[in-house]
């Protein structure tokens, strides 16, 4: 008479990994779409930010050139007084506002945020 070998229980880490994968399987489409959309948004923000910085730099060079040629006079202290409160408020509230806008009504906001951060750092 032959005896059947007794099945060995899976290793604890394999069982945990399988149960975690089974638990995440329904959410994987949302997570992957969220990460992909977040990455694309991050890359787009990088490129748009670069263009905005180029425009601001060209504007400054133009103002300086016109001031050098005595065609205009720029009151830099008045310009600073006008823009400083707006820039301070933008730096304090801008990032949180942008985060709220980009993740509003998204069920996959965590994956989107992770993809956004990766997209902002990507060298594309």
From TrEMBL:
Cross-referenced InterPro entries: FUN14
Keyword Amino-acid biosynthesis in annotation: no
UniProt entry tagged with the keyword Protease: no
Protein name per the record: FUN14 domain-containing protein
Subcellular location: Membrane
Transmembrane segments: 27-45, 52-77, 97-120
Tree of life domain: Bacteria
Main location: membrane
């Amino acid at each position: 008479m032959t005896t059947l070998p007794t099945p060995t229980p899976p290793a604890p880490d394999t069982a945990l990994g399988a149960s975690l994968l089974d638990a995440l399987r329904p959410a994987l489409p949302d997570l992957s779409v969220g990460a992909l959309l977040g990455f694309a948004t991050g890359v787009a923000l990088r490129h748009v930010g670069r263009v905005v910085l180029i425009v601001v730099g060209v504007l400054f060079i133009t103002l300086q050139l016109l001031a050098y040629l005595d065609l205009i006079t720029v009151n830099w202290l008045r310009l600073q007084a006008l823009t400083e409160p707006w820039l301070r408020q933008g730096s304090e509230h801008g990032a949180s506002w942008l985060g709220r806008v980009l993740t509003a009504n998204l069920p996959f906001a965590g994956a989107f945020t992770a993809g956004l951060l990766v997209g902002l750092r990507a060298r594309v």
